[in-house]
Amino acid sequence: MFAVIHLPQFPLQAALRHEPELWAKPVALVDLAPGTPRVCAATDAARAAAAAEGLTPTQALARCRQIIIRRRAPSQESAATDAVLQCAFGYSPNIEHTSPGTVTLDLRALAELSERRSPGHREFDDADHAEQISALHNWGERLSTALTALNLRARIGIGPTPNVARHAAWWGRAELGTRNSELGIAVMPAATIVRDSPSFIASLPVAALEPSSDVALILRKWGVRTVGELLALGQDALAERIGLEALALFAAASATALRPLNLVRPTERYEESFDFEQEIETIEPLLFILRRFVDYLSQRLEPAGFVVERLTLKLRLESGAVVEQRLRLPQPTRRTDVLFRMLHTHLESLRTDSPIVSVSLKADPTQPEQKQFRLFEVALRDPHQFQETLARLSALVGADRVGTPVREESHRPDAFKLVTPDFEKASGVVGRKSAALSRIVPLRRFRPAVKAKIELMKPASDNPPPSSVRTSRIVESRRPIPVFRPEDVAEMLLFSKTADSARQKEPDDAKRNAKVVEFPAAHQGSKGLKTATGSADAAAEGRPNPGTPSGESSRPIAIQCSVAKGKLRIAVGPWRASGSWWDANSWQREEWDAATREGAVLRLVQRADGWFVEGVLD
Asked: Cα–Cα distance between 461 and 466 in angstroms, integer?
């Protein structure tokens, strides 16, 4: 068995598919391809007003002042062709694009129909008649419903050969009446099913064979009106009188000839477009068309089992510019409410320089994803609602201020950038962050850093300290790190406690006579630094010490800010870092970890704009 889908007036159907309410009005479709524009298709209301095919637009307007002129759009015809092929492929794996608006389906591979005998053969008895017709009718009704949902007015013909099925789709509906049983057809609301192929072919008019105009005139003069009368003349006798065209007429009238189908597979292109007759400047007409686009795309994707991964919206402006926006869905779906809400949210913040003249919407298909979550992994309750919220926030504060903060590939502390939330790798990122959080030292960061005034001490000379002065244990500096290491902090506190104990045991005279205070070295293996107590030779606030030798740094010995005040017991550092020296965003900083006499451990940073306290160890 074969089935044929025929779309009468296919160019007009493609043009009015997004405006089905115009079928009840006089509408003329004008083809601008030829030199002189002509009406190539018209609705029944336009024909009733004598505005038929072949007229110019001016002549059609003269005959019907209420007529609506529409231009033929190849893009809309291409979209309608893709829609009918994709719909047909959902009901049969073997399809042929016979002609524009006509698709042939091979039903022999369908399981629900393959075990039944064809009603087009003589051996088809009455016992199987009802069951076979019912099965074919149910199949045709499902196909007709799917095409109607796409606003396609289709005629479906079913027969034992492609030729018979094509005649049933083109001419079956014209033979409604009491003679259906005599014609060998079963006319259903959804399809025309041929039961007796020879009787049906013989009852067709000669125009069904599509003869040339000269041959049609000759046959009309002979009084030949039907295909049966033509077949009665005989192929050889007719060929002697009208030539080789008689062979083509007899081949078109064959009820038994089988031909191989030129099988095609529908493209995975899901796109809808529409050209506005008048430019639009408001969002309401655009949303009205986009709602229909979303409905059609969802219905086209359903037979193939696809979902929408990304939407591409194109708006052509009157100025010739094209506004294109790609909207990626957080979770692939074909739910029309979700797709339309995403488009609506985007258009709320859209502003164009000129009116819109055309719109197109393309859906990138993908297979539905099936993901197995881990025991403690959960998904967003509504990813689409979350995406809509992000879109609204972007419209309010700007797209560059909404996103997920991600550390940049830089040694600069707190250097980050905002990226679009990645829903695919969200679970892995959370797992990595959880593991990283468990290793963080309890450093309470100040946002922003606290401005501080630091008293510095000059680097010591290369001369060793006097033997009478007790030398404190040197804390070796380690490689630069962005936060405190627990072992560094413990060593700092241990050193501070040791210094306190030693200071308490010293006599008052020794404290008064002490001339130097030892600090840990700046680099591993370096000597201690010393200066006179209570008199700092340099005090810096955001500037380097001019007396600092190469490779050494002035050491902080006192601090004054809102966080801490007074002398520092110990200062470990410096840890220097810099980057981006090749552009205007160059930076450099020097970090110190210092402990006050009250026991607070601070992170001190010297930048180009001064000294700051970045945090305190709780």
From this structure: 13
CA distance 62 to 410: 75
Kindly report the backbone phi and psi dihedral angles of residue 54, in degrees, each rounded to the nearest multiple of 5, phi listed first. 95, -15
User: The pTM is what?
Assistant: 0.62
Alpha-carbon distances, residue 415 vs 409, 412, 577, 579, 593 (angstroms): 8, 6, 13, 11, 21
Q: How far apart are CA 95 and CA 86, in angstroms?
A: 10
How, if at all, do strands 404-407 and 416-419 pair?
A: antiparallel
Alpha-carbon distance of 401 to 275, in angstroms, equals 36
pLDDT mean by block of 10 residues, the chain; 618 residues? 91 90 90 83 90 88 89 89 91 90 88 57 52 81 89 89 90 53 60 84 87 89 88 88 88 87 90 88 89 91 88 90 87 87 85 89 86 65 72 78 82 80 54 47 81 80 45 38 48 54 50 38 36 34 37 76 88 85 84 87 88 86
**Domains of the chain with CATH codes:** 1-9+74-203 (3.30.70.270), 205-252 (no CATH), 270-369 (3.30.1490.100), 389-441 (no CATH), 445-617 (no CATH)
